[in-house]
Amino acid sequence: MAASLRESPDVLLVDDNDDLRYVLATVLARHGYRVVEAADEPAAAEALRLHRPSLVLSDLRLPTGDGLGVLRAAKELDPALPVLLMTGYGAIDEAVAAMREGALDYLTKPIDHEHLVLTVSRAIEQRRLATENLLLKEALGARHGAPTIIGEHPVLLEVLRALRRVAPTDTTVLLGGESGTGKELFARALHAHSDRATGPFVAINCAAIPETLLETELFGHEKGAFTGANARKPGKFEVAHGGTLFLDEIGEMPVNLQAKVLRVLEERSFERVGSNTTLHVDVRLVAASNRDLRASVAARTFREDLFFRLSVFPITIPPLRERGSDVPLLARHFIERFAREQNKRPPHLSSSATAALEGHAWPGNVRELQNCIERAVILADGDTVHAQHLHLGAGEISRDTPAPRDPWEEIDLSGTLPEASRRVLMEVERRKIQEALDEARWDHAKASAALQIPPRLLLARIRDFKLAPRGAHA
User: Fold this and answer.
1) Which H or E run contains 313?
2) Rg (CA), the chain
3) What is the pLDDT of residues 271-305, one digit of tens each?
């Protein structure tokens, strides 16, 4: 069956029941989906290769092969391909296990038609957004080594769209957002995709420079303009000529300097401190603030005319808690980065670490996550980052109290069976020896007797495991 629109998304429907397959295909076709049918795993694998569907809907039990085989074939073809499984109530555990292998969701038989259409629609829309986001990021990253912006959440996608629209213009952009959301990264991306990309990108944090020095940092000074001015110094506006000047935390700028910045925006000219010579510059201004500048205008700490001049095209960077599904992506990006810097093999995230990351509120946003992952990569001795390596604390900074986790999730079972067994046995041996030594108050004779091992072997293990009395590492 097929919908009339050629561009309608394809669904591969896999079920050995001809009647059920006909009914479900008819329902999907009525909602605009082109359906390709298969009755078993081999036929599904062939259909995957021939038709490249946008979604797979497969029964878990098939006469030849099974839904897990269809799932694996789909993921081998395209790891991002969404797979929905259908199952009876007696096999829900199998469906849940399949989700751990990458299935997006499962539907229980008898299939509710409205629920089917809604689930398929959501899955295909999610796939469409992910694909569009990938294309956007490729387009944004294709020029001049633009910084990589990690994430696939729809709210981030909207920001990238806005960034792409305004980048080719000379319009002044005001970036808003909480501290740690990466406003300078977005400013650099804006510059990299503009016609000024070959020019300089100059950043200055208005909150990090004392008020007495900020004017000369921005506008420069002449020799002898004040005590200590032993030579002429160009300011940031001069240095950024032909490129982009990023004024971070502009809400902290003193009111008297705000007037001079407004003049540069309006007239493209200024004078260095201690000079009467007017300089003309060609600079695009991008400003950022984690403050509510409207409130600052109302409080008369920020000029209204400058605010309106800056906010021609405002973009708000979403906090990390509003794009929680991006947290694991960002975490893996930072793991690879810091492992490379530390000349280590990138560890992978355990399920417990992923759950802890997703449950955290991230008040410090991406900056907090970055610091957390850097610390975790340093602390992870093996090839896995576990929850305890993250040091996220308890209670006060989590969105929800996490459910009790299976202690086996804390154990690194990666690699071959002999490798995993050896790693687990070594950890048991280390813990047992540490416990025996602590109970014996580090009397080696008593500890070796309790463990029933020779004292020489105990000493060797202490050296191998780098054991010490508890508290000695603090």
Assistant:
1) strand 313-316
2) 30
3) 988 888 888 889 999 999 998 899 899 988 999 99
What DSSP letter does each residue of 276-296 carry, written as one string?
--EEE---EEEEEESS-HHHH
- Domains of the chain: residue spans and CATH: 10-129 (3.40.50.2300), 154-316 (3.40.50.300), 322-410 (1.10.8.60), 417-465 (1.10.10)
- How far apart CA 268 and CA 281 sit, in angstroms, is 6
Beta partners for 205? Answer: 248
Q: What angle do CA 137, 311, 292 make, to 5 degrees?
A: 95
Alpha-carbon distance of 469 to 259, in angstroms, equals 63
Tell me if 71 sits within 8 A of 83, measured CB to CB: yes
- Burial of 342-371, coded b for 16+ CB within 10 Å and e otherwise, reads eeeeebebbebbbbbbebbbbebbbebbbe
3-state helix, strand, coil in the chain (%, to 5): 50, 15, 35
Two tokens at 131? Answer: 């694909």
Q: Is the preceding peptide bond at 210 cis, omega within 30 degrees of 0?
A: no
Residue 98 phi, psi (nearest 5): -65, -35
CA pair distance 447, 469, nearest whole angstrom: 13
How far is Cα 63 from Cα 67, in angstroms, rounded to an integer? 10
Tokens of 245: 């000047």
Q: Which residues contact 321 (CB under 8 A, 6 or more apart)?
A: 361, 362, 399
Calpha distance 80→89 (Å, rounded): 27
Phi-psi region of 280 (alpha: psi -120 to 50; beta: other; left: phi over 0): beta
Q: Which of 14-18, 45-49, 125-129, 165-169 has the lowest mean pLDDT?
A: 125-129
Kindly tell me the number of DSSP H helices and DSSP E strands found in the chain: 19, 14
**Closest C-alpha among 145, 127, 126, 137 to residue 163:** 137
Report d(CA 328, CA 315) in Å as an integer.
24
Q: How far, in Å, CA of 52 to CA of 62, rounded?
A: 21
Per-residue model confidence (pLDDT) at position 125: 85
Q: What is the mean pLDDT of the chain?
A: 84
β-pairing verdict for 284-289 and 173-176: parallel
Mean pLDDT of 405-427: 70
Q: In sequence order, what are the residues at sequence separation of 6 or more whose Cβ sits closer than 8 angstroms to the Cβ of residue 281?
A: 237, 238, 240, 241, 264, 268, 269, 270
Question: 215 with 273: CB under 8 angstroms?
Answer: yes
